[in-house]
Amino acid sequence: MRLDPKAMRYLTGEDFRVLTGVEIGSRNHEVVPTPLIVQLSGLRGGSGVHKCISNLAKLNLIAKVKNTKYDGYRLTYGGLDYLALHTHQKQKTVYSVGNRIGVGKEADIIVVAAASGEQRVLKIHRLGRISFRTVKTNRDYLRHRSSASWMYMSRLAAMKEYAFMKALNENGFRVPDPIGQNRHTIVMSLIDAYPLRQISSVPEPSKLYAELIEMILELASVGLIHGDFNEFNILIKEEKVVSSAKGKEPERLHTDNDDDGDDDENTNIILTPILIDFPQMVSMDHTNADMYFDRDVNCIKRYFQRKFGFVSDEPGPFFKDAKKLVGTRKGGKRLDVEVEASGFSRKMAKELEAYMKEVGVDGDNGGEERDSEDEEDEDQEDGSGSEEGERDDAEEEQGQSTSDRAAGEEAPGSKESLDIDKLKISETPGQAS
Ligand SMILES: Nc1ncnc2c1ncn2[C@@H]1O[C@H](COP(=O)(O)OP(=O)(O)O)[C@@H](O)[C@H]1O
Ligand SMILES: [Mg+2]
User: Fold this and answer.
1) Which residues lie within the region annotated Disordered (predicted)?
2) Under CATH, what is the fold of the domain 5-190+390-401+405-422?
3) Shortest CA distance to 298 belongs to which of 312, 280, 278?
4) Which ligand 1 atom lies nearest to the CA of residue 161?
């Protein structure tokens, strides 16, 4: 499902109240009966509400469902997106919406702008988009109803990601600045950089490798494992530093769409890795911490070997050694403990983890070994649409594979191509409706 914000500006305050009514109603109704929507919207004059309902349904923000017992509506992903955007707009975290720069199995990444024009990133979590059917058939252990579960779980993923981004950011880790979180979305700073995946060569692989391993160990020292430490989730920022030393070869990285020509002998380029994507972070105390830790380390080792032909002479690092580092940084800070205390509880973490396992979320690599292929030219569809028939949101498009995204989507740096739609919404209550 693609976020299309165009209708935002035509929706009235009443439309949003009715949409909110459907959202509230879906907390305990799989299909929200129309009279309940009328009641929850808190608007007087039933015919006005019915106008809003048909308007919202036309825009696919809610969908009519004919039940055996009664007719009603359910909220669609589009409706949930609009509610979140509306809140971001009110909180001034988002003013306008631009291009989608990434689409993964579990999230859409969209460039947005603040009123000042500052560009930001809106990440919309869409947990269970691909494997909706699996969720439906195995949902017994979930307390939540199926139609509410994707909303609830996507919200948990956003909450978790935001909580970790904030804790990491405040503690000197190189991650985006967290700006806002609402429902299943977060707003963060735009990193003007390419994912490691798109970088074909680096001048000193050993240096970058060492920095990445250092990052893994720094995370361990505050009690954390990223859990999906791979070439898609590490952005490599180039920072130009003008050096006075003449004749020194400038450090340079090459991306697959290089366009430079402004190489200056006096300019050194420093490569800074920035880490993103945190919904699967785990504590160093997690039951399977050793497996997650090793997987993160091996992922980087394998990638550097395959892509840059670099193999470190040092074995490890190993989990048992990393474990000794826990609590050794900054007066024994434990960010796993801090995040838990900040509101993303252990219970929420467990629920989310169980659900992610259930819907097969296991990082950008889809579990393991996409190995043999190397470059960005593979554009196989991710998992065919054949089992999608039963999915509630059948109208929604299939998610692309992460490899498509890395190849085809635009780099965040290309600012010229932004087509920003103003999100101004009419707040005039009940105009002619
Ligand atoms: N803050 C950001 N700045 C720039 N690019 C970003 C940012 N966040 C995400 N991206 C881009 O979007 C892609 C997907 O983002 P990610 O958070 O990893 O989502 P997913 O959970 O779908 O993997 C990244 O690989 C990166 O290219
Ligand atoms: Mg990712």
Assistant:
1) 246-266, 358-433
2) Phosphorylase Kinase; domain 1 (3.30.200)
3) 312
4) 17
